[in-house]
Amino acid sequence: MIGILKNNISRSHKDFFAIKSINQVSRTSLPSCLFCNTIDPNFPLTIETTVLQQIEAFSFEGVLITDDLLLTQMLVNIPCAKKRYLYIYDMEWKYINGLRFTQLEPIFYNEDIDLIVRSEYHFDLVSKLFKPPAHIMEYWDHNVLQKIGNSHDQS
After folding, report:
1. What is the pTM of this model?
2. Is residue 152 pLDDT above 90, yes or no?
3. What is the domain range of residue 86?
4. Which of 22, 79, 104, 112 is the most exposed place for a label (fewest CB within 10 A)?
5. Residue 116: which CATH number?
6. What is the tally of structural domains in the chain?
7. What residues contact residue 25 under an 8 Å CB cut-off, 6+ apart?
8. Residue 100: φ, ψ to 5°
């Protein structure tokens, strides 16, 4: 079972690819779920997987992935998850005024969080700055998402 943890689903390209991918995964034998607080009523895709409030993730017993730095702090405290991932879709920390590198260390060095990046370039950069990512997943690629979910369903 695989779940995506988000705050909100908006009309962003990142959310579009996440929903498109989880929809494709939901059509397979791998159970999937989306945990979020709100969904933009004008979001261009129909969501074809189970949608639950974000708080429900605390009882989720599958693999959880978030692409949000703040939610990663919450992700660490979700006790039932088989595996936890931060998908570094963008290097968003560059745009946060006043953010210090030491504030990222507890997230990126956390042993309970594996990293996923979007490209080879990101893989090399994140490996040099923090730790090697576990996966490269371009634009929420549903094949990689399914591979991640299936690898933990077998254990």
Report:
1. 0.93
2. no
3. 2-153
4. 79
5. 3.40.50.2000
6. 1
7. 2, 32, 49, 142, 145, 146, 149
8. -105, 150
